Amino acid sequence: MSDCHDGCNGSRREFLSGTLKLAGGAVVTVIGASALASSSSGPTSAPIPGGGEYDWNEHLWAYLVDTTKCIGCGSCARACKAENAVPDGFFRTWIERYAVGTDDSHVDSPNGGMDGFPPVQVGFVANKSFFVPKICNHCRATPCTQVCPVGASYRTKDGAVLVDADSCIGCGYCVQACPYGSRFIHPATHTASKCTWCYHRITKGLKPACVTVCPTQARQFGDLKKDGDPVRAVVEHDRVQILQGHLLTEPQCYYTHLDKEVR
Amino acid sequence: MPEITGFSFPNDIHVTWSLMIVMYPYITGFVAGSFIVTSLYHLFDRQEFKPVARLAMATSFAFLLVASLPLQLHLGQPQRGPFVIITPNFTSAMAGFGILYSFYMLVLVLELWFVWRQEIIDRARRSRGMKRAFYAALALGTYDTSPEAIEIDHKAIKILAGIGLPAACMLHGYVGFIFGAIKANPWWSTPLMPVIFLLSAAVSGIALLILLYQVYAKLDRRPVVSTCVSALASWLWFFLILTITLEELELIVMAYEKSESWLIISELLTTRLSFSYVTMQMIIGGLIPLILLAVVVLMNRYLHEKVRNTLATVAAFLTLIQVFSMRWNIVIGGQLLSKSLRGLRSPYEPEMFGREGVLMAIALFVAPFVILWVFDRVLGIEEPEGSGGHGNPPAAPAEASAASHVP
Amino acid sequence: MEHGKHVFRIVILVAVILVVVILGRGLLIPKTYGLYGRYRAANVAEQMNARPVLHAGAAACAECHSELAAKRTAGGHRNVSCEICHAPLGAHVLADGSVVKPPIDRSFTLCARCHRKMAARPARFPQVDLDQHVNGPVEGKVCLQCHDPHSPKP
Questions:
Q1: Which of A180, B80, B119, C29 is the most exposed place for a label (fewest CB within 10 A)?
Q2: Of chain B residues 85-144, which have a CB less than 8 A from chain C?
């Protein structure tokens, strides 16, 4: 069932749900079945019901972060907040600052890095220091959609992990299941909320807001199905890293020059 | 705003699963635990549990009616709760719980009906008017109490108990699975979790029955049968030993492996959870009842009945605290540590009033006892005194069951 | 099974309840649920139109402000999005086409966010030690008095 993501049995599903509605699944006749099957033209004409021109079969989005380029200005987090009306105290994206010494390390992210970073004094000799931007990893084997009891959270065919706020019951299980702390319960809607890769933008040919405003190209966004895409080139040919690889969530947010201290 | 020691992911500072999610496994535990006790009699013929068998089944039912409420109360959109059944996503442990819960409810209600069928019919015969209509409806309109029908009832009870016991174990093992299968959280993610939950469910169920039995016997002016109390106490001791051993083993393995999360978990246990884990779960709720129960079991012969009752009751009360602390430490403790494994947030204090508050939790805990009281009023938990007390061989059901086991 | 009447009745009752539940469930399943997987397929389009695009990117700004845009493209801030200092385009050109003056951030804080000297920033990135800048400490002063944000020079 799980590998049937690309509508291979869309018409069968339609048929099944139709019969369930009509007859409790058991007593429909063969004639009824064939009539239903032939009447459902399938979702070939409009790939997303009500989605217009955009064909999600033609894209596979991926995110790329070069940690050596991040200057910790927080423009991304501010743009994200404005673009997506993210409530105060909750974060769809944030920036972490690391200071790493031989035996000790220090991490902070004041207000998610939204207001930039004040100078910091650490109580040890920091040999290196750097910023790491974080967003939802839009995992391919996502633990968050796995645990959603009602199918309110799902991964689209073009690779974005989304939450249907009209179906979400607000149980918070997905918040617990995300190893990256990318999800939260929205204080106003009481449903799960998270980074959508600005799905309202990427389906119109734009980049996510955080990528659009990043002044150093530390954050990049690309299409793994597009020839000549720079992000695709890096993901396919360079040495890329992911966060918490041991959990086998197959993140689609890739990193270059990640430090061992980053989790 | 909670205070953070170290570094937490910025979204990780909220305790999303509140006191209600502590109450949920606590209450579900009583469902499974008391069903285990009733099965010891109905399925495994341990006659010493006869005095509490019906009480245990009614208790399981009373708690089951309440078990899904804390979940409902916790939901951000409670009115969408039924979607767990309407559009279940079967890869989710929580959706599976909806199905298991309904299934167990069905089995338990059926078993209750067969066990109490005679009572229902008796009451239908005795009463008139609306009352009679009510009992007649409950009896589904057939008043067949012939020995043959009773024999059929006993077969049905056996079969249902046979299905019910694994269902009850699954139900609560599953609650442990909800936590144990979260690989993101090192304090939860262990295959031991369902086992620990199941064993501690047995602990809480037996402990509650020791208490309930004392109270019920007083209220109903029945003598407390000492073989029953000592049997309950020894089973409680057994399950408590297993539970605490596994709870400790989990930690010891983690510490010995020096797993990446041990550093933060040891800090969690010694700072944020030092009271609720070390003091409550391990010493007051663990060590002390272990000693008390050891006395009850090992020195059973020498104990005066009153001493035995008192020791068992105190131990039972303390283990109820142990189990609650364990639920608290798992559910809340797991949310105090950030998945960054670098930060702990300040202790969580539940609100007093409101949907997920302390008062609601108390109400949820009291509700099953109210249901039990109503149950006693409507159907009578124990068989009526006239049909044979505990001393004499009781009327038809026990005789029939006894007969069926004599070859 | 002469005496099994009550068993028969309760089995029928359970069967009826099950059928009612299954039928009722069928009626309540949202329309596009299950079209592509265990979710409501209609939500994908809802997400596409969930909110207006606020950050339009520098190219959109250049459509009207070509002169400043060209200056920016030629200078050191060529990669700095207009919308970082000038607020998102969505706050400037509204959805109905009307134009309002956007809030412009000229503050010291904004400049310091990127250029305050900090160990965590890449070494090659231009940073200012605010305590020893030209004639002494400049913390809190208006950087724009000396620097042109559209084509800054060190």
A1: C29
A2: 85-87, 89-90, 106, 110, 113, 117, 139-142, 144
